[in-house]
Amino acid sequence: MIFLIPLLALAALAAVPFFVGAYPLGLGIGILGYGVLATAWALFSGPTRYISLATVAFFGIGAYTVAVLADLMPYPLVLLCAALIGLVVALLVGLATLRLAGIYFVIFTFGLAELARQLVTYYEVNVTRTLGRYVFLPIGPEHIYWQLLGLLAVTLALAFWISRAKIGLALRVIGDDPVVASHLGIGITRTKLALFSLSAVVMTLAGAIQAPRWTYIEPSIVFNPTVSFLTVIMALLGGPNRLFGPLLGAVPLFLLFEWLSANFPNHYSIILGLLFIAIVFLLPNGVLAAWDKLTARFKNNEARA
Amino acid sequence: MTTLSRRTLLQAMGTGALATALASLPTFAQDRTAIRIGYAVSKTGANAGGAGISTIPNYLLWVDDVNKAGGLELSKLGVTLKLEVTEYDDRSSAEETVRAIERLATQDNVDFILPSWGTGSNLAAGPTFDRFGFPQLAGTAVTDMAPQLVQRWKNSFWFLGGGHDYANALVDLLVKQRDAGAINNKVAIASVADGFGIDLSKAATPAFQAAGFELVYDKTYPLGTSDFAPIINEVSGLGVDTFVAFSYPPDTFALTQQAVVANFSPKIFYLGVGTAFPIYPNVAGPNHNGVMGVGGIDPDSEAIAAYFERHTALVGQAPDSWASAVTYASLEILGQAITRVGDLDKSAVAAEIASGEFDTILGKVKLVDNQLRALWTVGQWQDGKFVGLAHTEGKAAREPVVPKPAWVPAS
Fold it and tell me: Which residues cross the membrane (chain A) (predicted)?
């Protein structure tokens, strides 16, 4: 039974492209894209409380891999290569930086996204002497939607498994108190590295899958820092420590952004900034935690009465 | 309590569904009150500067011009309708551009969609325009891929040429000057490490070499560079008569100022995007005279002069002398094609754009293989106008002034 409901939900979502027009499908792609990113982000950052702004670095690496390799090999192999490249970069970066903590880690990850962008630009400018790359793949919006849906399902399944496995418990201990964790004999760096890499691979795939939608890839298009910020704010809104938390942040926020940009095209950025501040102040642990707190208070009142 | 709220919810959903169904009913021509034009342009983000100069003012001006003239006549429907605009901000993001076009096409049910600014966003939007069958009038995309893109997206139209057009025209012009003994054989090129700079330098480097020029300096600088003293200082010691920078707007201005400060005044001073902007003379002061760059206009054309006046009156500033007039002309073509077809049939309008000849501010225009091939490629500031020195169809508006006047030192 517990496996039946998610499977039914998955099947229902997979059927969506047969019934809706181009615009709802575009919305679906956007929601799934950010749903995947936010869930993957929370996979690592939720339990460890390391705020990472490197999302777009991996996202962009994925998109670029597709742009470079699309003509050379079949598509599934391209995705595999993208995942491998994401993994290697995450391992290298993780080994070098996961000993950093707090604000240093935040700044480093933000820098990493910029570094990836500049390295790609440098390479393209000086070696290949082309800056834009064209992705002409016979992949329509519905294919992108299905791939993202599949990726989201796998990511959620992984998150579910991790939260119940030993590594999930270890991560939570690290997040609560690294000193205690090391005294318990938890390999702090190894554990963090494993989760960081896993989360990075999912982000890389999310970028790779969405690349054919843009036709033209440029560093400034795929390494757009807004993606990192939106991912963080979505995960924080929903609650990064719950399985469906990031998703519950991604869906309403994405729809809200879309509504804002359709109805207030000239005030979008101002409203967005105010919203970010409001979320951080009012819902520091996410809506799910706020909901639990509210119901707990309600129950207390009942018990007292 | 729970039952009630569920019922309310279902009722609300039912009403919502009904409203959506009603909204998406086709509107009949008789009920039409306007021709709906939609566009998503970059009002914020990295592309906002370019869009604010070459794209948005021309969309506003065209709509204003058409509506002041009473609208467009649709003979098959027996009405003359004004234009009504739905606009969005794509925030300089390719994903937003694509989704905004989907929204315009299926939610707002607009009749025609105008593209966003820049090469990248036009390419990103290509498949979506194609899927919905809208003609795409890319007035601000510079791409050598245009012939292949036309094969792929039948309703796409490319108005601003490719990197090779501009690079080759510049080299041809310099060859003439060299052969006439006006300049020496040494050339320095500095290019911004971004789309436009790379595209042009990739085309220019081999063209210069093939023409027998000696490239004593050919380097790129990163996007966002603000200090150009190292480049100017290095180049000024190399004895070049020709300095070429395939630059972007803030760099174009900074390079000019730095060259004046360092008193590096080569006989030919050529800059990239931004040279044709109306503010360039304000930035460079008296030193704008004789500076060359990409683009140009016909200074003797009355249509262009009238266009400059209307643009200044509506927007508060003159248009740029490269992509602006081309963008406006692409809209004139759209308007005339709609009138000729006589209704709002997208594919008929696209077919007319592809095959017809049109009266525009650029003169008589006929697209070749869905591309505008009559382009000003090299311009020079002369007497307050950025005049065309080279045209893809061979008729120069003015002779180049070489050497350019020496810099007036900054006071």
Answer: 24-44, 51-70, 76-96, 103-123, 143-162, 193-211, 217-237, 244-262, 268-291
Q: Does some domain include residue B46?
A: yes
Residue B294: strand, helix, or coil: strand
pLDDT at B10 over 70: no
pLDDT tens digits for B212-230? 999 999 999 988 888 999 9
Residue B3 falls inside a structural domain: no
Number of domains making up chain B: 2
Q: Quick one: B181 and B252 in the same domain?
A: yes
Q: How many residues does chain A have?
A: 305
Residues sharing a CB contact under 8 Å with residue A57, sequence separation 6 or more, in sequence order: A89, A109, A112, A113, A115, A116, A117, A223
Q: Do A124 and B223 touch (CB under 8 A)?
A: no
Residue A140: closest C-alpha in chain B: B127
Mutate to test the interface with A, among B44, B86, B93, B99 (most CBs of A within 10 A): B99
Q: Which residue's structure tokens are 């939607």? A: A145
Chain position carrying tokens 């009504």 = B84
Note whether residue B5 is domain-resident. no
Distance CA(A304)–CA(A198), nearest Å, equals 46
Interface test with A, best of B24, B41, B98 (most A CBs within 10 A): B98
On whether residue B353 sits in a domain, the answer given is yes
Residue, of B187 and B24, whose pLDDT is higher: B187
Total number of residues shown for chain B: 411
Residue B46 sits at the chain A interface (C-beta within 8 Å): yes
- The CATH number linked to B273 is 3.40.50.2300
Same domain, yes or no, for B157 and B84? Answer: yes
What are the residues facing B188 on neighbouring strands?
B217, B243
Compute the distance between CA of residue B248 and CA of residue A131 in angstroms, rounded to an integer.
15
If asked whether residues B93 and B83 sit together in one domain, one would say: yes
Residues B42, B158, single domain; the answer is yes
Percent with pLDDT over 70 in chain B? 92
A-chain residues near B222 (CB < 8 A): 118, 121
Q: pLDDT digits over B159-185, tens only?
A: 999 999 999 999 999 999 999 999 999
Indicate if B289 and B387 belong to the same structural domain.
yes
Let me know whether B88 and B150 are in one domain.
yes
Q: What is the pLDDT of residues B119-147, one digit of tens each?
A: 888 988 998 999 999 999 999 999 888 99
Q: Residue B246: beta bridge partners?
A: B191
